[in-house]
Amino acid sequence: MFGKATSFFIVGLCCGVLSATLAFALVLRSADDAHEPGGSPTRVLKLAHSLDEKHPVHQALLQMAETLDQKSRGRLSLEIFANSQLGSEAECVEQLQQGALDLTKTSAGPLENFIPEIAVLGVPYVFRSEDHCWKVLEGPIGDELLAAGERVGFKGLCYFDAGARSFYTVNRAILSPDDLVGLKIRVQQSKTAMAMVEALGGSPTPIDWGELYSALQTNQVDGAENNLPSFYSNRHFEVCRHFTRNEHTRVPDVLLVSEQTWQALSPDEQRWLQEAAYESADRQRQLWSDETKRVLQALEAEGVAVHVPDLAPFIEKVQDLHHSYDGTQVGGLMQRIAEE
């Protein structure tokens, strides 16, 4: 019916269509494979923090990495650097501003050097309770403070529980503010933390977290202030035999992303990262609660004296500090927090 030339043309045309179809199918398959979990990620985000790998924050960040991989089907991955491998908290924040680091976890305390109004979270006894603290952080005030960093090069994704900060000392039990008189107390690089220790009668001494153990050992400072899990995980109990649960502040940790990194992500990628951060925050709060209970039992076994003083004298002692913020942005935030 057809001549040889026509037959060859038809066969060639069919083969060409088949080859094109197969090639298109392979392209689709390759694109799909690139999005499968375990495949090569499109983008690897570097996240650094100063805590050890057993800390509840690090454990929550590991879950965040898994969640992000699942949500993005392998398109986004986290590479996590613990133990101050990439620098101190302040140095990591500066790297975010420069676009040299994608994410970091930092205490809200040092952030006041970049965002002045976030100092409100370090004002002693600004929160009435743990529940009051989380009501504020998960409400409009908390959202405003997370967004405030955008003007200086980074964005807050979520808060992690860092518990209540309290005093611990080498030799002397702190049962009232009078017991702090004459003591050198290590604080973060935070003007608010320094003002708090001064208001309570101590001598604030800023020292990097990684250098604190030896500073306590060599009597450069007489004590420090932090939460129970950090006190235990960094083995400060080996030097400091008194922990006083006066709970002067509830300064949260904050997970930050570089504004340069954030703007480079697609809307879907931004959504995956934010959702993974929220889920890790929920997980971290449970891990933190469990760890705090475990630490209290461990400290008892280690023979550390854990004191629970009357908080009224401590609260009274910082009232002048509270009034020093009257008429300021921090003072306005304090008023809003009190009304929550």
TrEMBL record:
- A GO MF label: carbohydrate binding
Which UniProt keywords are listed? Signal
What's one GO BP annotation on this UniProt entry? transmembrane transport
Please give the superkingdom of this protein's source: Bacteria
One GO CC term on file: outer membrane-bounded periplasmic space
Listed CDD domains: PBP2_TRAP_SBP_like_3
Q: What is the annotated signal peptide range for this record? A: 1-25
What Gene3D superfamilies does this protein's entry cite?
Bacterial extracellular solute-binding protein, family 7
PANTHER family with a match to the protein in the record: DICARBOXYLATE-BINDING PERIPLASMIC PROTEIN, PTHR33376
Record's protein name? Sialic acid-binding periplasmic protein SiaP
